[in-house]
C-alpha cells in the first residue's frame, strides 16, 4: 500500500491543506454549506463579492439555464463591507480554513475603500480583486478588459491593503496573457481565472431575454475548455501562482487544471448542482492520486506542458 | 438534507401533469406545508440545474412524500420519465417561509390555488383540517384537462373549481369567486394571480400568505439568484431583495412587493 | 387553418428560401450530406474554408469532446482553391441552393489570391471571409481580433471580388462591436458570427493535451449563450445583416438568434450529432411559426430588443 | 443509413466489456467486414458526439447485428446502460475501406487482434471461413478478465490467445507468436501493435490490412477530424491525410504511415 497522498499546495503567500476552494458568489459566506459538511475540509473559502456599500443587485430573473451551464446576473447583491466585517467574517472565525474576501467596486475609489476597511478584519487570508464582473454597469469588467486599468486598480489595492492580492481575471478579452502580465507587474501575488463569459439566453415564448438584465455571466462545465486554455496560457506567462476556475465538477477536472499550470482551483456552479460538490471533488482527487501512485499533488502542476 | 429516494409510484394525472410519490421517511417527518425540494432530474451535465418542486403531501406513517408537477420544459420532462423503483436525488425540505398551519383551529381559512400552484396547498389544507379549521378552497385551472386534486380538497372543506375557458366548474378567474373575508388566506399560483389576490377588496384586512416562484440555482440560499422584493416595514414602500428559496417560498402577503 | 408560414429571408444581396445554412467546415462540400437529403432544401450552403494552396492540416487527434460541446483543430485542411474550382463547385451546380465559399489565408496576399481565383467560378453567391480561424499559426485569428487588420483584409477582398462579402468574426475578442463596425466600414455586405472560442482539454491519463495542436476551437451548444450575446450586440451596432452561428441544434435555438437580431443562421456541430440536423431544425422552425401563428419569419428578426 | 434500432440483447461479457445485439435488417444486409456504426448513446447534449463502434458480426437471416465494446469513458458507460427493447440511434454501415473477404478461398489468412480490436475480425473471419480460407487467429489481451470471442474463433480455425500478464494463454504480445508468413493478414488493435505488425519481419511481403481508430466527430467524411497519414505512392515517403471514417477504417498496411 502506498502512503496517503499529500494534497497540500503552497501558493507562496498562503499554504493550503488542499487545492479546493469554493468560488466567490457561489458559496455565500459559507453558512449554507456548513449545514452539509465541515468547512474545515476546504483548502480555503472565497466569499461573495463585497462592495463599500450595500448593493441591491439586479431584477429577476437572475438565473437562466444553458447547455451544460448557466447564466447569472446577480449584480453583486451584498450587504456592504461593514456588515461583512461585523457579521459574516466573525462567524467564519470558528473555522481554521483561510478566508479569501472577493472585493468589487464601480470605481477605483470603491475598490480602495473596501480594501482599506477590510484591513480591520481579523481573519482574512487574502483579497481577491474582482476586476471581471460582467453584471454591473460601469463595473469591474471595464477594469478587467483593459491592461492599463487592470494594472492601476491592482497596484492601488496592493498599496493600501495589508493582505496578499489575487487578481481575478475576466475571460472576455482578446489577450488574457497581457492582462495577466499587467497585474503581475502591478504587484498581484496571484491571479485567479476565469470569471464568467458574457452571454445571454432568449425565451422564445415571451420573445424577450430570459434575464431581466438581458446579459449575464456564463459559468459551469460549458466554459471549462476556455478556462483551461486561459490557465495554460497565463501560467506560462507569469511567475505568480495561478488559481484555476471554470466548470470544475469532478476530481478529473481539477487534475486537468493542475496539469495546465494551476496551483489551486475554485469550484463555482458545481456547488449548486450538488451541495457536496467540493467534498466529492476532493475525494475523487485523492482517489486519482492514489490510483496513479502520486504522493504529492504538487507534482501535477504544469506537468502537461 | 440531501436524500437519494426511491420512486414508489409515478403516473400522469392530467395533461402534462404527473404525480410522483417517493419513499423518504426523514423528509416526511420534517417537512412543513409550503416547503419544497430541489430535484436533480438526471445525473448529467445537461440539464445542469436542479428543479424546485413543492411538497404536495406527506404520509408520515408510510414515510412517503408526494409531488405533483407539470412536465413543461426540458428538466421536468426528463423527470417524468423516471421509473418506479429507481432513485432520485433531492435536497429538502427547503424554505424557512412556510404556510402557518399551527394554532388555526376554528378559524375560517381560504385557500386559493392556480394551476400547478394547487398542490402545495393540499398539505396545508390537511394540517389545517386536522385542527378543525374551516376550509374553503378556490382552485383555478386553465381548462378541464388540467384540473387536479378536486376530490381531495372536497374531503377537507368547501371547494370552488374555476376554469379560464369554462370547460369545467365555474368560468373565470379565482378572484371572481372570493365572496367573503376569511380569517386567513393562503395562495399559490402565477404572479398575476397572486397580485390580484393581494389587491382583492375582500382581502385587505385578512392575514394572507403567498407562495412565490423564482428561477433558482442553489435552492439553499447561497447564490442570491432567486430573490423577490419584500417590504421591510409596514409604513413605507421601502423593500429589500429576499431569497425565495431561503426566506420563502411563502411570505406574508402584505410584505410582497409586486 | 393558417397559411403555411413564409420562411424566406432577404439578406439584401441574397434572397434565401429559408434562414438555415450549414456552417463552414461542418459540411465539407455538401457531398456527404447529399446522401441523407436533398440539398435544395437548404437556404444556402457554406463550404469548407478554401486557401490558395492545398493545406495538409494539423496532426491528430483533431477532435475532443467537451461538456455540451467539442474542440476541433483541423488546421484548415483543404485541397486548395484550384481543386475547389475544378471539382467541388461544379458538383454543386446540380443544386439551385446558393453556395457561399468560405476563404482563409495566412497573409493578406493569400486572402486576395483565393478571392481573385474564385472570380472565375460560376456558382458562387457570396464569399465568407474567415478572419477568425483559431487553428492556424499566423492565421486568420490575428486578422479577426484586431480592428485595423480586419478592416484591411475585408476592404482588399471586397475590392478584388465580384461577390458580396460576408465577414466571419471571431468571438475571442474584448469588443466584438468595434470589430463588426470596422468590417462594415470596410464594405462587408454582412457579418457572420461566431467562429469558435479558443479552448483546450487535457487527458488526465496521458497527462497531455487531448488535441495534438494543444488548443482548438470550441463549438456546439456550450457556446450558444456567448454567440447569442454577440449577435445581439452586433446587430444593434451595424446596419448590414447579421448571420448567427454557434451551438444551434433546435428550431427554438434558431428563433433565439432571429429574436436577437440575426437575419439567417448557420448550423455547425449539430450536423455531426445528427446528419439530418438542418432538416429537422427547419421543420421545428416551421412548426414553431405555425403554433405561434406567425406568417412571415422575418417578423421575428430583432424582435426581442 | 440512419437507423433507430431495437436492442435485442445487451450483456456484460468480461471486465467492462459488453455485447449488444440490435435488430437492424438493413444494416445486416449491407454491412461489410471492417465497417462500423456511429452511435448516439443518449438523446442529450452531454455527451454530445456519437461513438464509433465496429460491426462484430451480422446475422443476415435474423436481421441482427452484434457489437462488442468496452465501457471505458462517459459515452460508452451510458451506452452500456441501454436496456433490451429500447431504441438506439445509429448511422451505418460506415467506412469504404473494409477487410477484403472476397475471392480468398484456399488462402492462408492470419488475423491479429488486440483487445477491443478483436471483435471486428470475427465478421471477417466468418466470411473468410465460408469461402474455405484457412484461418489462423492470434488474439492478444491485457489479462484473463478481458479475453473475448476465443471459442467463436476456434470454430473457424487455429487460435492463439496471448495475455500481457500471462494470466491466460501464452504470455506476451501477439507479434511474438507470428511464426510464418501468411498470404494475407488482417489486423485491428492499438496503434503500437499495428505498427509492430506492419514492421514484423515475417510480414514484409504478405498483403496486409490494418483497421485504424481515430477521434471522430461526423463519422461520415464531412469534418476532416479523423485523418491518418496514408502514403500516396509505393516509391517514396510522401503521404496525405485520409479520413479514417470515410476512406477507412481499414487501409492496406503498406500505405499506413505511422
Ligand atoms: C419553490 C418552488 C416550488 C415549485 N413547485 C412546483 C410544483 O409543485 N409543481 C410544479 O409543476 N412546478 C413547481 N414549481 C415550478 C417548477 O420549478 C418549474 O416549472 C420548473 O423548474 C421548470 O423546469 P423545466 O425543466 O420544466 O423547464 P426548463 O425550461 O427546462 O427550465 C429552465 C430553467 O428555468 C427554470 N424555471 C423555469 N420556469 C420556472 C418557474 N416557474 N419557477 C422556477 N424556475 C423556473 C428551471 O428551474 C430551469 O432552471 C416550483 C417552483 C418553485 C420556485
Ligand atoms: C472505426 C472505429 C471502430 C471502433 N470500434 C470499436 C469497437 O468495436 N469496440 C470498442 O470497444 N471500441 C471501438 N472503437 C473505439 C471507441 O470508439 C472508443 O473507445 C469510444 O469512442 C470511447 O468513448 P467513451 O465514451 O468510452 O470515452 P470518452 O472518454 O467519453 O470519449 C471522449 C471522446 O473521445 C473519443 N475517443 C476516445 N477514445 C477513442 C478511440 N479509441 N477511438 C476513437 N475515438 C475515441 C470518443 O469518441 C469521444 O468523442 C472504435 C473506434 C473507431 C474509430
Ligand atoms: C451565481 C454566481 C455568482 C457569482 N458571483 C461572483 C462574485 O461575486 N465575484 C466573483 O469574482 N465571481 C463571481 N462569480 C463567478 C465565479 O466565482 C466563477 O468565477 C465562475 O462562476 C466560473 O466558475 P464555475 O464555472 O465553477 O462556476 C459568480 C458566479 C455565479 C454562478
Ligand atoms: C470541425 C470544424 C471545422 C470548422 N471549419 C471551419 C472553417 O473551415 N471555416 C470557418 O469559417 N469556420 C469553421 N468552423 C467553425 C464553424 O463554421 C462555426 O462557426 C462554429 O463551429 C460554431 O458553430 P456551431 O456551434 O454550430 O458548430 C469549423 C467548426 C468545426 C466544428
Ligand atoms: S436559489 Fe440560490 S439563493 Fe435561492
Ligand atoms: S469523423 Fe468527420 S471526417 Fe471522419
Automatic annotation (TrEMBL), chains A, C:
One of its GO terms (molecular function) is dihydroorotate dehydrogenase (NAD+) activity. Its cofactor is FMN. The keyword DNA-binding does not apply. It is an enzyme of class 1 (oxidoreductase). It catalyses: (S)-dihydroorotate + A = orotate + AH2; (S)-dihydroorotate + NAD(+) = orotate + NADH + H(+). Residues 7-289 form the Dihydroorotate dehydrogenase catalytic domain. InterPro entries: Aldolase_TIM, DHO_dehydrogenase, DHOD_1B, Dihydroorotate_DH_1, Dihydroorotate_DH_1_2, Dihydroorotate_DH_cat, Dihydroorotate_DH_CS, Dihydroorotate_DH_I. GO terms for biological process: 'de novo' pyrimidine nucleobase biosynthetic process; 'de novo' UMP biosynthetic process. It is found in: Cytoplasm. FMN binds at residues 24, 48-49, 102, 130, 168, 194, 220, 246-247, 268-269. Signal peptide: none annotated. The keyword NAD applies. Its EC number is 1.3.-.-. The active site is at 133 (nucleophile). Pathway: Pyrimidine metabolism; UMP biosynthesis via de novo pathway; orotate from (S)-dihydroorotate (NAD(+) route): step 1/1. Keywords: Cytoplasm, Flavoprotein, FMN, NAD, Oxidoreductase, Pyrimidine biosynthesis. GO terms for cellular component: cytoplasm. Binds 1 FMN per subunit. Pfam families: DHO_dh. HAMAP family: DHO_dh_type1 (MF_00224). Belongs to the dihydroorotate dehydrogenase family. Type 1 subfamily. NCBIfam families: PRK07259.1, pyrD_sub1_fam. Heterotetramer of 2 PyrK and 2 PyrD type B subunits. Catalyzes the conversion of dihydroorotate to orotate. This is Dihydroorotate dehydrogenase. It comes from Desulfuribacillus stibiiarsenatis.
TrEMBL record, chains B, D:
[2Fe-2S] cluster binds at residues 218, 223, 226, 245. It comes from Desulfuribacillus stibiiarsenatis. CDD domains: DHOD_e_trans. Responsible for channeling the electrons from the oxidation of dihydroorotate from the FMN redox center in the PyrD type B subunit to the ultimate electron acceptor NAD(+). Heterotetramer of 2 PyrK and 2 PyrD type B subunits. The keyword Flavoprotein applies. Binds 1 [2Fe-2S] cluster per subunit. Binds 1 FAD per subunit. The lineage of its organism: Bacteria, Bacillati, Bacillota, Desulfuribacillia, Desulfuribacillales. This is Dihydroorotate dehydrogenase B (NAD(+)), electron transfer subunit. Residues 1-100 form the FAD-binding FR-type domain.
